[in-house]
Amino acid sequence: VVSDLDGTMVGDDAATAEFSAAWNDPSVVPEGSSLVYSTGRSLESFAQLIAEKSAVMAAPCHLICAVGTKIYKRKPGVSKTATAAADVSSWEEDPAWTRRLDEGWDFAAVERACAAAVDAVGHDNAHFRPREEFNEHKITVGCRDDFVQRLADLVEGATNAEGLRVKIIASGVGGWQYVDVVSDCAGKLESLEYVRQSVGVSHSRCVACGDSGNDTLMLGGENRAVVVGNAQPALMDWASAQDNCAGSKDAAVACERRMYIAGDCEARGILEGLGAFGFLGPFTEPAPAPAPAPKGPLTACYGEDAAPPFGYVHKAENLDFGIDRSGEAAIGFTSGYEKYQALSCDAPPVHKFEDCEWCKTHSCDASCPQVMPAKCADPASFGVCEPTVKGICDTLQQSHDGCTSGSKAVVEKSTEYLSVDVQNAPCAAPIMEDTLASLKKYKLAYNDWAMAFNNASQVCKVGANIREYNGISFMSMHKSLEDVERVAQDACAEDDFDAEAARPKAELGASVRNADVCSRLKDLTASMIADADTSSAQIQCFAANCVALKAAEQVKLDALVAAHAEYEAKYLAYSAAITAYNQKVSDKNTLKAAVMESYEIFNPIKTTTVAKFDKDNVVYQKFESGAAKGNCGLSDCEMESVCGYAVAADADYYVEEKGGKCVQKHKDLVEHCHK
Fold first, then answer.
1. Using the 8-state DSSP alphabet, how is residue 259 labeled?
2. First vs last C-alpha separation in the chain
3. Whole-prediction pTM value?
C-alpha cells in the first residue's frame, strides 16, 4: 500500500487509528505486506507528524518524500513502531534513486527559469516557497490558480531551451496551488515503481491511495488505485472519467478494474478500497507467535474421575519436563522472517543505454558517417596531381580514423554495458515465490511446534506443581487422616461389635445404617489419603499426558527443523541471487557512467572530424571530377612557376639541338601536368 499522508492517511485520527489497527492485525492484513507513505513533506516534516500522531499512525517500511524526489528505507534493526519512525536517524536515503534524478537536471538553471517565470506572471500572482521546502531536485512555487498554466509553460519552455527535462506538478485548493518543479525522473509514480520493484510486488498487488492533484500520476499507473471520498474536486472529476469501478465494492472485484472511488473519507476510504479489492481478511492462517495450549489435556485431569490411560506404568520422572530448545536455531522464526523482509532488489538502469534519459538530452549516435573515397587507395591514377591528391587523402584518412577510434571506444563501452543483463530481478522471479512458499511452510511448522511445546510444558508443569503441593501441603494431614481411618475401623470393627445380637429386633434397621455409614467412612478416608498421595490418580493422569505431549513436541520439532533447513537453503540461494543481482545493477550503473563519459569525449571529436572531413572532401571531389585537373589545384601563377621549374629540370622532353641551335619540340607546356 502506497498512501499519501495529508488528507488521505491523516486528517481524521479515529480513521487513522482504525487503519493502523487493521494493518497491524495479521488476521486482517496478510503478513509480509508493505506500507509506504508518499508525501510532499520532507523527512523532518514527516518525523514531526508521526511523532504527534504516534498513538494512531502505523509505521511504514519506506518513505517517499518531497513528491518523489527522496526515497528512504527503514534501517535494519529499527523497531517497526511509530515512535521509532519519528526519529530521522532511523531512516537511510536510497543513493541509487538520488543519482538517477541527476539526469537532465541542473538546479541553478531550473531555479533561474522559475525566477524568470515568477517575474513574468507577477509577484502578486506567484512566489517562491520557503527554501526548506526545496531540495537538490525540487523547487516549489506558490501560484494563484489562474496563473498556474502560464507559469508551467514558461518554466517548461525555458528549461527545454537549455536541454533540461523537468516535471511540473500542481496541487492544492483555495485559490493558490503548490507548483513543484522536479527532475523529469522524479514524481510519485516513478518513485512508487522504484519501491514496488525493490520489494518485489506485482502491479495487481500494489495499491496507491490519494486525495489531491499531485497524486494523479501514481493513481494513474498500472497499479491499483483508491481515491478517498474526500478527494479534491479536480481529482474526483479526473477519477470519475477513468474506466474504473467507482462506487461499487462488488464491481471492483468482479470487473477487476484497477481504480476504486471510495465513499468513506481519508483512512476509512483506504480500508474501503482495500476491502473492495479483496485485500482484507479475515485470514485463517495463524500468526507467527506461540499459540496458547488447548484446554483438553488439562481439563481431562481436573475432574473427579481423572485417571491415567489403561496400561500406564507410573514413574516419578514422567512429570519432569526438562526440555530446553533455546539452542535450537529453528525456533528463531521471527529473525528468519525479518531476514527475508530485509532483502530487496536495487532498481536497475535501462537495458539498452540508448533508451536511458541521458540520451534524450545528449547525442548517443556512435556511428561515423565519413566514407573514404575509393580512389584514395590509388592516388597514382591522378597522374602529376598524385602528390596533391595523396596529401588530401591523408588528411581525409586522419579525420576518418580520429572519428572511428573514438567510435570504437564508445561501442566497446556500450557493448559491455549491454552485456550486463539486469532485466530479470530475483525479487519478481520464481526463486522469490519458492522462498516465500518455504517461509510460509516454516511458519506453519513453527506454529505447530509452539503449540505442542506449550501443551507439553503446561501439562507437565501443572502436574509437577500438584505433586509438589500434595507433598508439602498434605504432609501434615496424612497423620490426621490416618487417625480418622483407624477410628473408623475401630468403631466399625465387626469382630468387636455385633449389632444384631446386642440390640432388639426393632433396632436392627439402625444397625444396618450404622454399618453402611462405617463402610462409606472407611472408603472416604481411604480416598482422601489416596488423593493426598504424590502418586494419586490425578497426578498419574497428568504424568501420562506429559509423556504423550513430550513425544508429540519432539515430532513437531523434527518437522520444524526440516522446514527450517529447507527455508534456510532457499533463503541463502535467494539472498545470494539478490546480492549477485544488486552487484550487477551496481556494475551496470558504473558502466553507464563510463559510457556517458566516453560519449562526452567522443561527441566533440565526431563534430570536429566530420566537419574537417567534409571540408577536405569538397577539395578532393574537384580532382576526382576533373574540375581541378588542368592546374592540379594550383593557381595560374603557381602553375607557371611549377611548370617553369619542371621544364628546366626536364629540358630534353621539350627542346632539342639542331644545327647548333636549341629548337622547341612543339610540346604544350600544360602536358607536363598530365603526362
1. E
2. 87
3. 0.45
